[in-house]
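Task: fold both queries, return tokens.
Query 1:
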Amino acid sequence: MNIRQLDIKEADFAERLAQLLAWESVSDQDVVTAVNDIILAVRTRGDAALIDFSNRFDRRSVQSIAELQITAEQLRSSLEKISTAQRDALEQAAARIHSFHERQRAESWQYSEADGTVLGQRITPLDRVGIYVPGGKASYPSSVLMNAIPAKVAGVPEIIMVVPAPDNELSDMVLAAAAIAGVDCIFTVGGAQAIAALAFGTETVPKVDKIVGPGNIYVATAKRAVFGQVGLDMIAGPSEILIVCDGKTNPDWIAMDLFSQAEHDEQAQAILVSPDAAFLDAVQASCKKLLPTLERAAIVKTAMENRAAFILVENLDQAAGLCNHIAPEHLELSMDSPENFAESVRHAGAIFMGRYTPEALGDYCAGPNHVLPTSGTARFSSPLGVYDFQKRSSIIHASRAGAESLGKIASVLARSEQLTAHARSAEYRIN
């Protein structure tokens, strides 16, 4: 396994880094065409299209839409099938995620001005949210918890979950997580057809206000296509991790932290930055030693050879500059006094501080959300949170005196824009 080596002092460093980071989330025109056809079919044929696509893409033999819906009895059965340790882990993770997100919930507010005018903001939850949960290569009960619990904390009254069940296989852990998180309705539908059903509704699948959750390129393309019809969390790219290490952490630990992202899929990205060249060599050796011990070694090897890099910097100040340039989804600061370094970090989805905080803790049970901005979008985006499931309405209640003073200002500004009806509407309230 050959991992790309970069040195910040090299003349072509910026160009090589740009090539490393380049990734277009939705670019395949054939995929776009296929997704548009699927969306049109779901819009026009509804449940019938979902049945056809499920049979075709997931190799099922479904005759009715009822066969695609999970019953309350199936949820209870899944809770009973998983082990006590698994259920305890799900419940403990759910409690921690709930506790963290409770602190994000915003409340309505208002204030009164001297003339009696009242201004404020009313916070209300979305009415109905759709959650996409991946199936196929792996099942992700953690994704269920991370997407559903913030919506519940926000007060969303109805959560609809879609999850593919290829070959009629569905993870009991995923269904158990849905039961624990309080998901209201589940359909075993995946791909672009599931996104279309959530966005436009069918005879059976309710139309939602927002769709959240990760998926493959067909899901990402469909999400982009329906944006505006519904709200979205983000168009997520491959998972990524950037580790900054001072060279004092066990290299086996760092190698496995890099692998923890590389094992997601072949497009995942793992980058290590350090001012210690000997340490980078030691981690390289650890990677070669540990790779054969992994169940998903082939995926990890491909990801590490195609999109990973070990970057040598002159000092940690340069490393901080790289962090802000890359704006990684996950940033591990494996060093002494990570708090000091973190003061220089402006762009990162989540920051994992110190040698004893692997990114894996954040994926499952630390509490903060693991749905994070990818592909550099941490420059302007935030982790999924309660605020994504709440909306804000402005409150304006002018008193008679307030209408007098505000009306004069509005009149001048409206007439400067040649909007005389605006001006006259305000002037009517002037005594």
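Query 1 returned. Query 2:
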Amino acid sequence: MLARGLAPEFSPAAMVELAAIRAPAASPVASARDLRRLVWCSIDNDDSRDLDQLSVAEALPNGTTKILVAIADVAVLVQQGSALDDHARQNTTSVYTAAQIFPMLPEKLSTDLTSLNFDADRLAIVIEMIFLADGTLATSDIYPATVHNHAKLAYDNVAAWLEGTAPVPSAINAIEGLADNIRLQHRIACQLAELRHQRGALSLETLQTHPVFAGAVLTGLAMDAPNSAKRLIEDLMVAANGVTARYLAAKHFPSIRRVVRVPKYWNRIVTLAAERGTTLPNDPDSKALETFLLKAKTADPVGFPDLSLCVIKLLGAGEYVLEVPGAPVAGHFGLAVKDYSHSTAPNRRFPDVITQRLLKAAMTGRAAPYSNEELTLLAKHCTEQEDAAKKVERQVGKSAAALLLGSSIGQEFNAIVTGMTDRGTWVRLSQPPVEGKLDSGPARLQVGDRLRVKLVSTDVERGFIDFISAAARTT
């Protein structure tokens, strides 16, 4: 972390500030609504403690539905320019490694005083969305409120219930009306996803893993599979982030947008599709790409995550940019949305804290708390630090993988090419799904090519895993 400009520890000044914060903030404005009676719930990972958002639905006349998303009010306790803010501004994100989590904000805040914890009253910024019967957004608004988390739910349990493979979780049964409420949220989320996919949002599915420990011993890598509960939250958050971006624009406020530009390597995506019998247009077209992806998933569901990873690499990384009202916006190619900010995870992402401060100023008629010049520099910094954090996470993840593969030197594996840079070629194994460097192999390899590789060395400390083509010889 230090080598990449990330601070693993909070400064003494930040800890002094933290000690002075003894309780959650009380309602700071008379206009804050009291919405504690609504059946708010959180749906997150089993072990998540930094709860950034809650959601609730309400059926309205004529088939319309109100969806409310409550976002933790972090800015009320983390003051702009404070030592705590300086740390968050430096790292810009929490860093999640196999060995340790390095939170952007101290756990006293992120998992307690600014977290939307179960059975606790908390201040929040509420994003209200009213959808027509077909899932079209009719109206929206943003305002401060006090909320109460009535049920802390986990993705896997909720997904199993929604998908009909398990009974309703007891935490849902304990709250009257919550089961029907979550079903309503799920129906709206599915409609939102369908509408985005009709516009060209991409159906991508990658293999995510996390280390499994028995005490202090690393025993394996477990898959994090997508499911209906994760998609429910993702789709509601995409909608909420769009409302946030448009709200600031309507108030003539600048904002930091999250964009994924038109793919630089579209030609290679065209080649990948052609290899699978599909012709894509010469110019980037998200709708055509989505049609191909759906066809490919149906034809080869087992190999689809490998194809998804290749497409993601070729699409290019997302970035933060300044949006000034009236100026053209690049949009998010992968989500098929034009207006998209990051606003729903302020406990662990600094761009979301910036957005929250802009929203609060816009709601109360105050001037923007950042100049356009500051926002331009912050957007660039957040992009760079997010990349640095991902590299740290990948490096520690590779150390875990190297530890697991240490006893497999000389064995052969099926692999796919996932990246090519000036520093070399990278491949990922089919099983276990870990990535390493290909030290020697066939000439003219490209992202997406499949080959057989042999493991030749591992270095746990540096996170190095090295392969050669199974047809190559070591010297």
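Both queries returned. Flag for query 2: The longest helix spans residues 372-405.
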